[in-house]
Amino acid sequence: MKEKNIINYQIRLCLFFLIVCSIVCPVSSAPLMNTSTQDSIIVDFDQFATDVFNQSDIPGMAIAITDRSHILYAKGFGMTSLENPQPVTPDTIFLINSMSKAFTSAIVGILIDRGVFSWNDTVVSILPDFALSDPKTTREITISDLLVHNSGLFEYDGDLLFRMGLKSNDIVHQMRYLETEKPFRSGYGYNNLHYFVASEMINKKTGYPLSYTLKDLLLTPLGMQNTSIGFDFLSSPETTRCGFADHHIISENGYVPVPMDKDYLYGEYGEVGAGGISSNVIDMTKWLRLWLNEGKISGNRVLQNETIREILRPANTIASGPGFNFTYAKGWVVKCDPMLPYPVIWHNGATAGMSSYNGFIPEEGIGIVVLTNAGENGVADFIGDTFMFMISNPTDYYEFTNISALGSDIRPTAPVSPYSGVKPGTYDYSGLQGSYLNNYYGEMNIRNESGDFIVELGPRPLRLNLTPVNKTSSLFRFEPLIQNVSTPDGLFSFTYNSDNKVETISAQGLTNPDRPPVIFSRVS
Fold first, then answer.
1. Which secondary structure element, helix H or strand E, spans residue 306, and what is its range?
2. Structural domains present in the chain
3. Which of 44, 105, 271, 448 qualifies as a cystine partner to 330, CB 3.0-4.6 A?
4. Known Pfam families for this protein (predicted)?
5. Could you tell me the pTM of the whole model?
């Protein structure tokens, strides 16, 4: 599951609002606003959200705002799909992406409340087959370390295996072959694999798949009837009744739909705790009210107060600067900002074709969720974050709603590759064909299919197309074979043996383009 860095856009927003800070009055702590002020803000917010949507060109979006007891605002914008357009409503179901992580943390918290887990349980005490490259980390890493991204792995590294067809338990086994970026517990490194492992720990301790545990411990108690995990939801009565938003990515011609074939769905909607949940904004207001009411819903306690505090406790610094601080808790990010009297607790998410945001301010007793069916944009973040500033600055927020300052983020252009590429038929590829092996990614096959050279990875498999960067080098670009799927996309470089056969392949960009290349060695 490829995602943008969850913090970069928020930092840009923070800098934008800090500039605004120089022309508006400083914020001071204040009691909760009265109802008329709140209603006025929501009227202005509706106009702001409409303006952002109209300028963004994204196909569809849904937003809901809730206080501790009921929905204050719920609205759909645009269409569910560019191919089969239906109006988006507050009931339309979207993939919520990495906002799923907080559900995993909450499940762990409930199981801790019931004596099944403790925050200090080591991974190997529950999953004996688990290992990382460093023996000390393997012995000592706990479920708490996983949930705050404290392992030392490279950000976003390694989660391509799920798209290749490996199950979560197989991925957990393979993690021993991943390189680390930094020492254990020495700093933040966002990685979906942490929540893959946490999911497996939950499965092992409960004896049930995550879908059952999620429904039993959270969805049913919260009344979230239109929320599910995995891709079987597409044929469910709930999805048929509510409608589902298709994925869209940006191209040279604007947003285009992502093909919803089963292999693609498996990679995006797998039953894992990192990002596989689908929901609508109505259900998500129930989720936010659980946190606004400190673990209670409709008077019934779901999470203990102490557990809520532990989940939301800032634990791992992501970024900080003059006057602002971003810290990862357990499935949530805590943001402190000079323009806000109270911390904002939030998380966003993005895959190839959808992006989302949810956040709340406990002291204000209010939260917001924004779901969109378009990837590679900052619309959900911008709308959600701006609403938090409006609520916190009820008498002077108009400068915060200046959408012109962030136009390139809410209306992105298609990424342009620096590699022109030419037709493979003009080259001698005879030395490329064969099988190659990497300890983590397993076997990779390269073969000629009617003049095109195709890479296959994994048991499903994931299929990539190879094209040369230029006529003189052994540098090749790889990209998805399925049209309109934006991940992965990177470069292969080769070394040759004396028989002019490729001996090793260096792959840059399989998951994280900033990590060292992944090396595959020829086996046949």
1. helix 305-311
2. 8-115+205-410 (3.40.710.10), 424-522 (2.40.128.600)
3. 105
4. Beta-lactamase
5. 0.90
